[in-house]
Design brief:
There is one protein chain. β1 (6-12), α1 (16-31) and β2 (35-41) form a beta-alpha-beta unit. The relative contact order is 0.19. The chain has a 4-stranded parallel sheet, sandwiched between helices. Strands 4-5 form a two-stranded antiparallel ribbon. The longest helix is centred in the middle third of the chain and has 21 residues, at 66-86. It contains 5 helices and 8 strands. By secondary structure, the protein is of the alpha/beta class.
């Protein structure tokens, strides 16, 4: 498959137009012979709306309510996969938990402890574009966690671990 290197970037997809623009960008990278991983980020306003909703329900939302904050990214990463598929390219979407982004248990401020690359590598080797919901992982007790800095952290960590592990496999 081309150069065999993976291209990883983060994309904020607030509208259908932006989703399709990001999908076309992913497709161009794939056509250039790259294996492509897209980390999807929800717009800041969605995050803020969910925080406001939680505060309307209770004065002090518990930090463990990371599931609420990760929800929008999960919807958007599925929409991105649909957009890429509509352009004729196989794609698959994963949550942080599905690809094994294991974090500590500091809800809303989690730090990545480990990332498994097996499912990503399998999908890339099958010729698919991989879409990952950013900003989320899972702790060792299988609780959804959200990362301290957000989707940028997911993109940087994935790029680093994919580069590191591909170097070992050569």
């Amino acid at each position: 498959m081309g150069s065999g290197c993976a291209k990883v970037w983060r994309s904020s997809v607030a509208t259908a137009e932006r989703i399709m623009r990001a999908a076309r960008r992913a497709l161009r990278a794939k056509q250039d012979g790259k294996q492509v991983i897209v980390v999807v980020s929800a717009p800041r306003r969605h995050h803020d709306e969910l925080i406001s909703l939680a505060r309307e329900i209770c004065d002090q939302p518990r930090p463990r309510n990371d599931m609420l904050l990760s929800h929008r990214r999960t919807d958007l990463h599925r929409a991105m996969a649909m957009a890429i598929q509509s352009l004729g390219q196989p794609a698959i979407s994963f949550t942080g938990a599905q690809i094994g982004i294991v974090t500590d248990s500091f809800h809303t401020k989690a730090r990545i402890k480990n990332i498994s690359t097996a499912r990503i590598r399998q999908a890339l080797n099958e010729g698919k574009i991989v879409i990952v919901a950013g900003f989320q992982g899972i702790d060792e007790a299988y609780n959804i966690t959200t990362l301290a800095v957000g989707s940028d952290t997911t993109a940087v960590a994935l790029a680093a671990v994919m580069k590191q592990r591909s170097g070992r496999q050569r």
